[in-house]
């Protein structure tokens, strides 16, 4: 079965712009979570969606937002990009609480 | 607050030697602990869940609530075990938010 698919794989944006990243979870998985990975901060939880509702949110500013659609696909949006937002953004899906995630390959965002 | 500590950023062992990757956590409730692995140029993947008490690729991990540890062990390291290993904690029942440690890069020397 297909894994977690993230698009695009790479993205270059300018400071001040906004960006939308997309994630298609494994079929049947209703929980989708997003993580930011940077060399300095490591893997940090952004937010989790379940059945189109944000269930948990990490400690990120309001510029970071997300949503989930009825087919469980999810998008995350970052507005007013800053240089520090350059990171690998990972999406993960799960079909059971505390069962463990399946991760996508990520979207590498570079802000210049 | 949740916290996961992996004290070793780098760990090198010889092929055939035992390996132990340390993980300590801080959480006031009953956590769910995981080990994730990332091989070179591959995506992050789940290795072990403490709740299932399984052995994957020869690796085991036991949750020690007294010492708040979840160390990953393998009796005989193989070259293909070289990878980045992350310990992660999920503390909220019914939720799927993970708190990751900073990771340990394991290198198995042939």
Uncertain spans of chain B, ≥5 residues at pLDDT below 50? none
Tell me the number of helical segments of chain A per DSSP (H or I, 4 or more residues long).
0
Number of helices of chain B: 0
This entry's quaternary arrangement is heterodimer
Amino- and carboxy-terminal Cα gap of chain B: 41 Å
Strand proportion of chain B, as a percent range, falls in: 35-45%
Quickly give the structural class of chain B. Answer: mainly beta
Largest sheet data of chain B: 6 strands, mixed
Which of globular, elongated, flat, extended, rod-shaped describes the shape of chain A? globular
SSE run of chain A: EEEEEEEEEEE
Give me the secondary-structure topology.
The complex is a heterodimer of chains A (112) and B (110).
Chain A (H helix, E strand, L loop, with lengths): L4 E3 L2 E4 L5 E6 L6 E8 L3 E9 L2 E5 L6 E5 L5 E5 L8 E8 L7 E2 L3 E5 L1
Parallel strand pairs in A: 2-11
Antiparallel strand pairs in A: 1-3, 3-8, 4-5, 4-9, 5-6, 7-8, 9-10, 9-11
Chain B lengths: L2 E3 L4 E5 L4 E3 L2 E3 L5 E7 L6 E5 L10 E2 L10 E3 L8 E8 L8 E2 L3 E6 L1
Parallel strand pairs in B: 2-11
Antiparallel strand pairs in B: 1-4, 3-8, 5-6, 5-9, 7-8, 9-10, 9-11
What does this structure look like?
The complex is a heterodimer of chains A (112) and B (110). By secondary structure, chain A is mainly beta. Helix content of chain A is 0%, strand content 54%. Chain A is built from no helices and 11 strands. Chain A has strands spanning 5-7, 10-13, 19-24, 31-38, 42-50, 53-57, 64-68, 74-78, 87-94, 102-103, 107-111. In chain A, strands 2, 4, 5, 6, 9, 10 and 11 form a 7-stranded mixed sheet that branches. In chain A, β9 and β10 (102-103) form a beta hairpin. Chain A is globular. The mean pLDDT of chain A is 93. Chain B has 110 residues and is an all-beta fold. Chain B is 0% helix and 43% strand. Chain B has strands at 3-5, 10-14, 19-21, 24-26, 32-38, 45-49, 60-61, 72-74, 83-90, 99-100, 104-109. In chain B, β9 and β10 form a beta hairpin. The interface between A and B is medium-sized, with 26 and 24 residues.
């Amino acid at each position: 079965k297909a894994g977690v698919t993230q698009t695009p794989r790479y993205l270059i944006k300018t400071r001040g712009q906004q960006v939308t990243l997309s994630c298609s979870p494994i079929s049947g998985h209703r929980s989708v979570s997003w993580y930011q990975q940077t060399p300095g901060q490591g893997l940090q939880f952004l937010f989790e969606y379940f059945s189109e509702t944000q269930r948990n949110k990490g400690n990120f500013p309001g510029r970071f937002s997300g949503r989930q659609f009825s087919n469980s696909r999810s998008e995350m949006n970052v507005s007013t990009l800053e240089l520090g937002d350059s990171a690998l953004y990972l999406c993960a899906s799960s079909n059971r609480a505390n069962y463990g995630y399946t991760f996508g390959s990520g979207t590498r965002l570079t802000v210049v | 607050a949740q916290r996961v500590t992996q004290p070793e950023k780098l760990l090198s062992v010889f092929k055939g030697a035992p390996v132990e990757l340390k993980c300590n956590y801080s959480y006031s409730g009953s956590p769910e602990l995981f080990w994730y692995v990332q091989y070179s140029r591959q995506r992050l993947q789940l290795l072990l869940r403490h709740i299932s008490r399984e052995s994957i690729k020869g690796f085991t991990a036991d949750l020690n609530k007294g010492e708040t540890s979840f160390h990953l062990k393998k009796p005989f390291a193989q070259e293909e075990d070289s990878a980045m290993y992350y310990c992660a904690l999920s503390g909220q029942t019914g939720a799927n938010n993970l708190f990751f440690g900073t990771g340990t890069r394991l290198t198995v020397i042939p």
